[in-house]
Amino acid sequence: MEEDFARPDESTRLVDCANEFRIHIQSFLARTTDIETREVLSGRSTWEDIQREASEALVKYQNDGKTWRHPFQTAGRAFSSVSSRLEFLLELLPNGDYGSLLFAGLRLVFNAAKRMQAIRESVMKSFSSLSETIDSTYHYIRVYSGDYILRQRSEDLYIAILEAVRGVTIWLTANPLAQSFKAFFQQNDYGKKLEAKMTTSIQDKASKFEERVQVLLHIKVQNIDQNVISVKHDITEVISDLREKGTTMASLEEMLRGLKLDLDCSLPQLCIHFLCLFC
Questions:
Q1: How many CB atoms lie within 10 A of CB 157?
Q2: Is 0.90 surpassed by the pTM of this model?
Q3: Beta-carbon neighbour count of residue 145 at 10 Å?
Q4: Cα end-to-end span (Å), the chain
Q5: How would you write the pLDDT of the chain (279 residues) with one tens digit per residue?
Q6: Which value, to the nearest 10 degrees, does the dihedral of the CA atoms of residues 207, 21, 13, 7 take?
Q7: Domain DUF7708 spans what residues (predicted)?
């Protein structure tokens, strides 16, 4: 679908984060010997690729006796009345390959969760907040895209997701013993901070992102209400004016009827008087 709203400009922070992520992924690809991981990152990822990887990971997770809400089950519905947080985020990213980077990272994460039980639960919990839906429409997205605070929170959420993907790649690179994700990251302070970014940062940033969307929605509704009240007031004034004019017209019509009646009564006498002048 052709876009008819302006996407935000790139901020220095977002550009730097994306560049660092590209460098990190290239370094990760140079070190990893996992064939499937290399295949995942070698081509261009699509929504369908992410859906497939996430769905297969979900099946494995359910087989472990766990439940999880699929964050991509509404993918492709960003122009309907309800969108997931992730879909809404994608509509607010600047032009460029920011969406592609996100797709590649998410596909990598869920591919790893699909194949490796040790990381599966942490991935599911870390990214579950992206499945929360936001009542919205495409027209509202166009309005919201110009809000500075929402753009900042969009960047915060985007960066948090990329940081979580980095955490997964670090686990894949430096975990030859396939320790559980939590045990691996509890070994040192750096690992603990990285795990915190994955397990809490996404949810926190996603919640703040949605909060701003809801604030904007309420502002939009309030403005609509005020416009309706204003229109109703204008209509009331027009009706009152028309009524006043109607009263004036009725008085004028009554006066004209009186004049006609007077003329009807006076005309015979005038005719007689006129004829007498010539007799």
A1: 26
A2: no
A3: 17
A4: 95
A5: 445 567 778 899 999 999 999 999 999 988 888 888 888 888 788 888 888 888 888 888 888 777 666 555 544 443 344 567 787 788 888 888 898 999 999 999 889 888 888 778 778 877 877 767 666 555 566 677 788 898 899 999 999 999 889 888 887 877 655 555 566 656 666 556 666 667 788 888 888 988 888 888 777 656 654 555 555 555 666 566 656 666 666 665 666 666 666 656 665 665 555 455 445
A6: -70
A7: 96-189
208 token code pair: 């703040």
Q: Distance (Å, rounded) from C-alpha 206 to C-alpha 249?
A: 64
Give the DSSP letter of residue 128: G
Q: How far apart are CA 112 and CA 104, in angstroms?
A: 12
Max distance between CA atoms of the chain, in angstroms, equals 139
Residue whose token pair is 């509704």: 221
d(CA 206, CA 44): 25
Amino acid identity, residue 141? I
- For residue 150, the number of C-alpha atoms closer than 13 Å in the C-beta half-sphere is 26
Give the separation between CA 141 and CA 216, rounded to whole angstroms. Answer: 10
* Separation of alpha carbons 279 and 277, rounded Å: 6
Q: Which residue has tokens 């940062």?
A: 201
Encoding tokens for residue 19?
């560049």
Instruction: Please give the C-alpha separations between residue 118 and each of 50, 123, 139, 176, 177, in angstroms, as whole numbers.
Output: 20, 10, 42, 12, 10
What token pair was written down for 34? 């996992």
